[in-house]
Amino acid sequence: MREKVFIIAELSANHNGDIEVAKETIRAAKLCGADAIKLQTYTADTLTLNCKNDYFKIEGGTAWDGQYLHDLYDQAHTPWEWHPTLFEFAKAQGLVCFSSPFDATAVDFLEELECPIYKIASFEIQDIPLLKYVAAKNKPIIISTGIATIEDIELAIKTCKAEGNDDITILKCTSQYPAKPENANLLSIQDLKNRFGCKIGLSDHTLGIEAPIVSVALGATVIEKHFILDKSIGGADAHFSLDQKEFKQLVDGVRKAELMLGEEDFTKGLRIKSSQKFSRSLFVAEDIKKDEVFTAENVRSVRPGYGMHPKFLEQIIGMKANNDVLKGTPLAPDLIKDWEQ
User: Looking at the structure, do residues 179 and 202 belong to the same domain, yes or no?
Assistant: First the structure.
C-alpha cells in the first residue's frame, strides 16, 4: 500500500509579525487539508551577524535585494515566545506542528515543546554539527537539498545514521524564490530515491500547484509549500506562497493524484469482472440448426463479452453445432460438437 503523502504548510514569515495572523493561518491550513504546519525557529542573531558590510547585503536578483541579512531575519522570524501557543493551537486543530531549528539553542527549546519532527533547511544541510545534534534527538528528520551537492547529501545522511537515526526524508528543492519551472528538475526525485534509499519528497518554491502534483507521480511522499492567509498582507515570503484557494487546490490535486496512481501491480488495476460485459466475445449471428457448420457469417466476434474468447474463432469455423442455436446466443463450448480444450 502506497504511503499517504504528508502535506506540510510552511508558515515561515507569513504571520507578518502578528500572532493572531499566525493562528488564523494555522486554522486555514487545516481547513485546506494540510497534515502539518511548520514553523522556523531562529533569531536574527542565531542566523547571521549584525553587520552592514557588503558580505551581508543581499544581491543577485531576489525579492530581498538591497536588504541586509540581519534586518531581513529580524523582520521575518517567528518570536520564540509564540511557539508554545502555536504548537498547542495547531494540535487543537488536529495538525502536526514542527519546526526548522537553525542552531542548538533552537533544538533545545523545541525539545521542551516536544517537537515531533525536525526539518533541516536547504542552507543548513552543510551545518554538520547542527545535523548531528538534531539527529541525536531520535526524531524523524526532513532535509531539504536546495543548495546541496551529492556529497553534501551523502554526508548529511551519514551524519544522521551515525547518531543511530535512520528516519530520514530527503526533499528535492530548488533554492529560488520563486523557482522557475525550467529549474524544478523533478525527475531528479527518482535519482535521489535510487541513490539514497530514503523517503523522498519535494519542498517547492515554484508558483502554482503543478510541481507538487507531478512529484507525487515520481515518488514523493512529503510535500512542503509556503502558505499565506492572504497575499495582500505582504511579508518577506508572500510573493512565492500559496493562498487559501491555491493551497486547497494543491491538496485536492495531490489526493486525486494518489488515487490515480493506484498500485504498481498492473493486474490489480484491472476491473475484469465488472467490465467483462463491454469486451468482445463470440456470438451466434444467425439461427443455426443441429449439425450445421459454423461459418464466418453465423458466428462473429462482437460486443458484449458473455461468449467464448475471440481467439477461438478460427478454430471453431468448420466445426458443427451440437443442437439448434438461436441468433444472439453467446457461443459456449457445450454448443460445439467434439469441442476439446
Answer: yes
Same domain membership, residue 307 and residue 171? no
The full DSSP string for 88-153 is: HHHHHHT-EEEEEE-SHHHHHHHHHTT---EEE-GGGTT-HHHHHHHHTT---EEEE-TT--HHHH
Are 129 and 199 in a shared domain? yes
Instruction: Check which CATH number belongs to the domain holding 300 and give it.
Output: 3.90.1210.10
| Mean pLDDT score of the chain | 94
**Domain with 285 in it:** 272-335
In a domain, 148, yes or no: yes
The string of pLDDT tens digits covering residues 264-302 is 777 765 555 666 778 999 999 999 999 999 999 999 999
The CA distance from 188 to 312, in Å, is 48
117-128 confidence digits (pLDDT tens): 999 999 999 999
Contact assessment for residue 8 and residue 222, using Cβ atoms and an 8 Å cutoff: yes
Q: In angstroms, rounded to a whole number, what is the distance separating the alpha carbons of residues 38 and 208?
A: 19
Q: Which of 205, 210, 225, 217 is nearest to 258 (CA)?
A: 217
User: Is 237 contained in some domain?
Assistant: yes
- 204 and 257 part of one domain: yes
What number of other Cβ atoms are within 10 A of residue 139's Cβ? 18
Best-predicted range by mean pLDDT (3-7, 236-240, 337-341)? 3-7
Close Cβ partners of 136 (under 8 Å, ≥ 6 residues apart) = 163, 165
> Is residue 189 within 8 Å of 130, Cβ to Cβ?
no
Cell of 7: 502535506
Cα angle vertex 321, ends 283, 281, to 5°? 20
User: What residues pair up with 61 in beta bridges, in sequence order?
Assistant: none
| Percentage with pLDDT > 90 across the chain | 86
Decide: pTM greater than 0.85: yes
